[in-house]
Amino acid sequence: MTGCAAGVRRPGTGELTVSPTICDICFWKCAGIVYKDGGEPWKVVGNPNDLHSRGRLCTRGTAGLGAYLDPDRLKTPLLRVDNNGNQRFKPVSWDEALEFIAARLRKLASDHGPEKLALFSHGSGGGHFKHLLQAYGSRSFVAPSFAQCRGPREVAFKLTYGEGVGSPDRTDMEHSRCIVLIGSHIGENLHNSQVQTFAAALHKKAKLITVDPRFSVPAGKSDYWLPIKPGTDIALLLAWMHVLIQEDLYDRDYVTRYTHGFTELKEHVRKFTPEWAYPITAIPAARIRETARVMAANAPATLIHPGRHVAWYGDDTQRLRAVAILNALLGSWGRPGGYYQQEKVALPNYPIPEYPKITARVQDANRGKYPEAYAGVSTAVFDASIGPDALYKAWIVYGTNLPLTVPGVAGRLQEAADSLDLIVAIDIQPCEVTGYADVILPECTYLERYDTLRNAPERRPSLALRMPAFKPKYDSKPGWWIAKQLGKRLGLGDYFPWKDYTEVLEWQLKQVGSSLAEMKKTGVKVFPRTTPMYFTEGTDIEFNTPTGKIEIYSTQLAKLGFDPLPKYSAHQEPPPDYYRLNYGRAPAHTFGRTQNNKYLFEIMPENVIWVHPTVARKWDLENGRYVRLKNQDGVESNRIRIRVTERIRPDSVFMAHGFGHTAEGLRLASGRGADDAALITNIPHDPIMGASGMRANFVTFLEDEV
Amino acid sequence: MTRYAMVIDTLTCVGCGDCVTACKTENQMPDGLTRDWVVETTTGEYPNLSTEFRSERCNHCSHATCVYVCPTGASHFWRDTNIVLVDSGKCTGCKACIAACPYDARLIMHPEGYVDKCTFCHHRVENGLDPACVSTCPTHCMHFGVLDDPAGKVSTLLRTRNYKTLLQETGNEPNVYYLT
């Protein structure tokens, strides 16, 4: 019964060539392998030796070729010109664009000082421009991954344990016997090894407790779903601590040996009973007790997951402190199934002259606020870029689409552009922020360039190589080349002594006993660990905190005048006829960067707004029909389709982030779905470290009149 | 007939669609067409809910009605297995197979004028590899193997776990199994 197979197409029958890469479709930086079939792009798959991908790329990484193939990519440098009062972009040569920027930056340095240049960056190529900035004389680089994302978590864990969670997160889920997710929707966010280790825990029947106002994907796999009233997580966390302490379920040995301030905590949470928490959180007291007991029964292999995007309400550092403390009570930090200790490769930097010494810091933009902001706060840098006393007169914006990324800035970008002497946008696609630039530089995609070696902390130290699989399309160039060219034109050539970035890679690899030739073959090199992955039981450990202990009671916060133990305070409630706007990830997209990728567009061309059936009945909302949303400040969204679902509390709505593009150059994405960031106009800032609280916004429904 | 089966664990599937992009790139699918897709079902009322995510495709039935109805012999079993393929050279695009498929799994008309469908990545299977979707799944919820091998992965899963197939009542004997 052999069929005539001649008529069935078999892909991959041409001459196959492979080359290693590091995915850049999100920030997880999975190592992959690019296949060409007869010289044509075929596919990108995970590198089996890589701990980030474990040989499997996610939905987005698998679709990585879509970024390379996108016909809407930036193709040539563009310069803003005034044409009889009309602003437009004129294609120019690299020489003209680079010389234009260099002339402005030379003038900036002589007129105002080089510290007036700020860099917004996100993504692995940002390092080349941080280097350029420091050589030029500025340390003002800022990434939304701090104040708009995981900054509160890093600060809270540093305050408690003396070190942050890091990225990739040091969660040891494959060994967890109980995982608690608080607003974290693993599986909808596809951080590759997180999802894989989470799934491994599910396979092994780990207990799963999910706290989420939405029946998220992991909620559907949970033993316990706690549909919490939004904004009340600290009350639940305090009640859990109360149960663990009152019922003597905490890890007494661990707490005694390693922590500072347990007595104060015990007193502090005495009154925060589950009965106290119930009317606040809507989680019944018995349920709070039961879940606390499940956590304790599986400790220390119980992971209270720290989440990632945790900039929610303006008291986020305190909420994450509560998460950190709960982990300490369970003894999970430094233990299998909790948080492991990461290791990276001791990789020397290519020798270059010392950077000029400067006193200006990116924290100057905070104007005395946010004492624990160890990194730049993007909203503060933005604010400090407007007006006569502005700290910044020029920006380089690398791969950071500010209006969709940093809520609250969209409406003031023109004002910033008017105030600044120069905005340079470096990107692969014509997105919203590039429209405000004076000069746009087209970077080639990750599949067309060398980049810095990936040396991320993990279970084992490893290096990974990104190398070009293809020649840069159009007139796009690698980030390292752009930075070097600008450096050369600014008289900073000594800081870029290499002709080609491969010289840097070759030198660095040689220092650790490898070579570029080896890495081109393997893509990933894994090194042996030199330190233990977990605490050695029974030994004392010096933590990098003022007391040398895990600070349940934060001496640093006490000194700064903040609550040394987390407290619950009520947040604003939705006004009548309004619903809390919650937002999150969809597995097919990364922020607002992938909506124009044809593969990912096909899976999810636009976002939808989730509403509970009772809300749908009240507003006569039909599944699939378009509406517009209006927030508490009167801001209206683009049209978005209704999704009526039982999977959400009736007091809130939900949409995936990253949609509602207005940049017309993104022909697939433009005008599709609604932009959550635009609806986030009420933004309480975390007084400890400056995070933007993004979940303090409420929306109602408008007829779509189109 | 050697029976190949796909076993998909709905308890760990997160519905991410990686199987869809993996198939699209592996099989160089034309824009707008896919051979597999993800179905989400929610049952119950808030807050007593359950969800199921399922990656669906051709079931490569042991009794494949699409093969029996094909007037030109384009639809055929590959090398005495249950893997159902379409020979594009013989397919006239009459769509009889589309009508005969209880799963709506052959709805694809390739721009070049023939019916297209999941091949279980037979070009990988003959080299001892899993289909592209199985090999990329980040939750490791998809499994592939020979059903007749009692010690094999898929047989073991079906022996030790609860499972279902879709539209069992049609008698097509589908070979994509869902662990529940």
> What gyration radius of chain B follows from the Cα positions, in whole Å?
16 Å
The CATH architecture name of chain B reads 2-Layer Sandwich
Helix percentage range of chain A: 25-40%
Q: Please tell me the CATH architecture of the largest domain in chain A by its name.
A: 3-Layer(aba) Sandwich
Distance between the termini of chain B: 27 Å
Structure characterization notes:
The complex is a heterodimer of chains A (706) and B (180). With 706 residues, chain A is of the alpha/beta class. Chain A has 3 domains: 78-143 and 360-526, Rossmann fold, CATH 3.40.50; 148-342, Dimethylsulfoxide Reductase, domain 2 (3-Layer(aba) Sandwich); 579-703, Barwin-like endoglucanases, CATH 2.40.40. Chain A is 29% helix and 16% strand. Chain B is α+β, with helices and mostly antiparallel strands and 180 residues long. Chain B has one domain (4-179): Alpha-Beta Plaits. Chain B has helices spanning 18-26, 65-69, 96-100, 122-125, 132-136, 153-160; strands at residues 4-9, 37-45, 48-56, 75-77, 84-86, 108-109, 115-116, 142-146, 163-164, 176-179. A 4-stranded mixed sheet of chain B has the order 8-1-10-9. In chain B, a hairpin with a 5-residue loop joins strand 6 and strand 7 (115-116). The model of chain B has no long low-confidence stretch (mean pLDDT 95). At the A-B interface, strand 3, helix 1, helix 6 and helix 20 of A face helix 1, strand 2, strand 3 and helix 5 of B.
Quick summary:
Chain A has 706 residues and is of the alpha/beta class. In chain A, 29% of the residues lie in helices and 16% in strands.
Secondary structure elements and their pairing?
The complex is a heterodimer of chains A (706) and B (180).
Chain A: E1 16-22, E2 31-37, E3 40-46, H1 59-62, H2 65-69, E4 78-83, E5 86-91, H3 94-111, E6 117-121, H4 126-136, E7 141-142, H5 144-161, E8 178-182, H6 192-203, E9 207-211, E10 224-226, H7 233-246, H8 252-258, E11 259-260, H9 262-269, H10 274-281, H11 285-298, E12 302-304, H12 316-330, H13 378-383, E13 394-398, H14 402-405, H15 413-419, E14 422-427, E15 439-442, E16 462-464, H16 479-489, H17 501-511, H18 516-522, E17 524-526, E18 550-551, H19 555-560, E19 579-584, H20 598-603, E20 608-611, H21 613-619, E21 626-631, E22 640-644, E23 652-656, H22 676-679, E24 698-703
Helix pairs in contact in A: 3-16, 4-16, 5-12, 7-10, 7-11, 7-12, 10-11
Chain B: E1 4-9, H1 18-26, E2 37-45, E3 48-56, H2 65-69, E4 75-77, E5 84-86, H3 96-100, E6 108-109, E7 115-116, H4 122-125, H5 132-136, E8 142-146, H6 153-160, E9 163-164, E10 176-179
Parallel strand pairs in B: 1-10
Antiparallel strand pairs in B: 1-8, 2-3, 4-5, 6-7, 9-10
